[in-house]
Every structure is written in structure tokens, then in C-alpha cells.
Amino acid sequence: MSDVIVHVMIRGRVQGVGYRAWVEHQAAASRLEGWVRNRRDGSVEAVFSGRSEIVANMLTRCRRGPPSARVDAVAEEPASPDLLKLREPGEPFSVLSTI
User: Fold this and answer.
1) What confidence tens digit (pLDDT) does each residue in 48-80 have?
2) Is 57 a known active-site residue?
């Protein structure tokens, strides 16, 4: 399988419930690269890079989220490698500041 990069927007009750930390843990356990951050509109935004089947599995998990989250929608689109440059230097997966 080939590598893919996807840009994801997750909506619902996904802030204040540990969603970013959960995504970081899931991504690290799956050896995905990318980042996650909260947005001021209440959504969570993420970029995942890795083997297509592993990214697809991560997207399936994002539709559920951690136990206290309520995910209403997950929108995904192919992303450019430029989005990976937002990570902290030297980190395979970063939790970024809210925008």
C-alpha cells in the first residue's frame, strides 16, 4: 500500500474531552506522522500521514473518539506535504496551539 496524507476536520463535542491527547496517543501507537489542534469554532483539525490502510483505520477511530466525546462529523480531504511542515521540529506527531 502507498503512503497518503489527509487533512481532517472533526465536529461535535470534541473539545474539553481529551480528544487531542487521544488523537496524539492513537497516532503515535499507529506510527502515523502529522498533527492535531483545536479550532476556535469548537472543531478539531488534524493531518495524518502514513500507509493508506493505517490512515483509514485512524479515520474510523476518529469517528468514535474517546469515551467522553460525541463526534457529529468527520470531513477528510487529500492534503499536501506542506501541511506536515506545521509540526514541531523533530516530532513525528505534534499537538499544535489552537487557531
Assistant:
1) 999 999 999 999 999 999 999 999 999 999 999
2) no
